[in-house]
């Protein structure tokens, strides 16, 4: 261990479900494997899943209280193992890394881990036995021990506050867009376009050359989606029926047959059935619906859409490590950035209050404040 690492840290913890975070002193976590690196977190995002976890809707997570939250963060490596693994060797002390949630200490032997296409031999962040930062193990609300195989190297030009929201929101929406399998010029819809993932999605989709319809149903997020300066058509679902949007698209594309009017793919970010239904109505025949949210009671899918319109529905989770690194480079190249509001670590409960107001964009703890 480097002697610059203190023994104690300030950490924001959950002590029970449905209770505010408590700022407390805890020992700095210790490296326990040759794949581990200790990261001093410089910025940590707050994500919808943090709210779901705190509400007790992700049981058995967290495994115990007190629990340190945040599963998307960026920081600086401050300690490495005495005999680092090949992956840990790539991130010497002083390296800046971004950390997503999945893939801490995977089992190494299941079919996911043994997939020859994995980024590292014996490592897959889809391993069911791997832990998740901030959920099934402690997260980034200050120092965190993470698995070197799960992190991304950050370019010098990318600030920690810009990098942190990319580690969950960014990689999730980037992967969802890739999952749409569209080529430049095709049409994609993003339902929930002004939220944390959505507003990043508008920017990624624009840089991918897609024609975008962004949908939201609240004033703040709609305003945010419009303020980004993308060429996306932004639709208020409260006042514009999906059928009208489809007709407009048909007109713009010079299409006569209603079955051939609409989007090639749509991404569903909110948890409401109304959002899911709205998104599916925007699809033309043979369109693809990519589901990102996972409401407790699921979505009702219209069997008629599947049978008579040949709509497909797929889900998507975070990408693998190559997707993560690719997303970081893509975001850096195309200047994709979350519109974020920053808070000091000690103001985390103010951040949560702000989150509950639903203004859109991302809320990030900046340790430098
Ligand atoms: Zn998240
Ligand atoms: Zn495994």
UniProtKB/TrEMBL annotation:
Matching CDD domains: CAD3 (cd08297)
Aminoacyl-tRNA synthetase is among the record's keywords: no
Cellular-component GO terms for this entry: cytoplasm
SUPFAM superfamilies the record matches: GroES-like, NAD(P)-binding Rossmann-fold domains
Keywords: Metal-binding, NAD, Oxidoreductase, Zinc
Pfam families: ADH_N (PF08240), ADH_zinc_N (PF00107)
InterPro entries per UniProt: ADH-like_C, ADH-like_N, ER, GroES-like_sf, NAD(P)-bd_dom_sf
Domain Enoyl reductase (ER): 22-365
Gene3D superfamilies named among the record's database cross-references: Medium-chain alcohol dehydrogenases, catalytic domain (3.90.180.10), NAD(P)-binding Rossmann-like Domain (3.40.50.720)
Molecular function in Gene Ontology: alcohol dehydrogenase (NAD+) activity; metal ion binding
Cofactors, names only: Zn(2+)
Protein family according to the UniProt entry: Belongs to the zinc-containing alcohol dehydrogenase family.
Cited PANTHER family: ALCOHOL DEHYDROGENASE 1-RELATED (PTHR42940), VACUOLAR PROTEIN SORTING-ASSOCIATED PROTEIN 11 (PTHR42940:SF8)
The protein's name: Enoyl reductase (ER) domain-containing protein
């Amino acid at each position: 261990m480097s002697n610059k690492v203190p023994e104690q840290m300030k950490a924001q913890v959950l002590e029970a479900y449905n209770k505010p975070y408590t700022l407390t002193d805890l020992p700095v976590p210790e490296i326990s494997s040759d794949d581990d690196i200790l990261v001093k977190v410089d910025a940590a995002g707050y994500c919808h899943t943090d709210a779901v976890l705190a509400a007790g809707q992700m049981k058995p997570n967290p495994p115990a209280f007190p629990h340190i939250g945040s599963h998307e963060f960026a920081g600086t490596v401050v300690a490495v193992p005495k005999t680092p693994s090949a992956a840990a060797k790539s991130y010497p002390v002083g390296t800046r890394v971004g950390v997503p949630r999945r893939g801490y200490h995977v089992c190494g032997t299941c079919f996911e881990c043994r997939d020859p296409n994995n980024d590292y031999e014996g490592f897959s962040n889809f391993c069911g036995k791997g832990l998740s930062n901030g959920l099934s193990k402690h997260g980034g609300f200050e120092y965190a021990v993470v698995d070197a195989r799960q992190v991304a190297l950050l370019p010098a030009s990318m600030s920690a506050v810009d990098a942190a929201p990319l580690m969950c929101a960014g990689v999730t929406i980037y992967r969802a867009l890739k999952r749409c399998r569209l080529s430049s010029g095709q049409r994609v819809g993003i339902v929930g376009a002004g939220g944390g993932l959505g507003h990043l999605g508008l920017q990624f989709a624009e840089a991918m050359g897609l024609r975008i319809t962004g949908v939201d149903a609240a004033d703040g997020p709609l305003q945010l989606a419009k303020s980004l300066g993308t060429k996306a058509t932004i639709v208020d679902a409260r006042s514009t029926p999906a059928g009208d949007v489809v007709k407009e698209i048909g007109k713009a594309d010079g299409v006569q047959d209603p079955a051939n009017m609409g989007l090639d793919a749509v991404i569903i970010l909110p948890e409401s059935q109304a959002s899911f239904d709205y998104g599916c109505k925007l699809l033309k025949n043979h369109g693809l619906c990519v589901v990102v949210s996972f409401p407790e009671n699921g979505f009702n899918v219209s069997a008629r859409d599947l049978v008579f319109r040949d709509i497909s529905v797929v889900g998507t989770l975070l990408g693998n490590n190559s997707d993560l690194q690719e997303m970081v480079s893509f975001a850096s190249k195309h200047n994709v950035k979350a519109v974020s509001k920053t808070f000091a670590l000690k103001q985390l409960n103010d951040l949560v209050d702000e989150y509950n107001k639903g203004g859109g964009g991302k809320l990030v703890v900046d340790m430098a404040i």
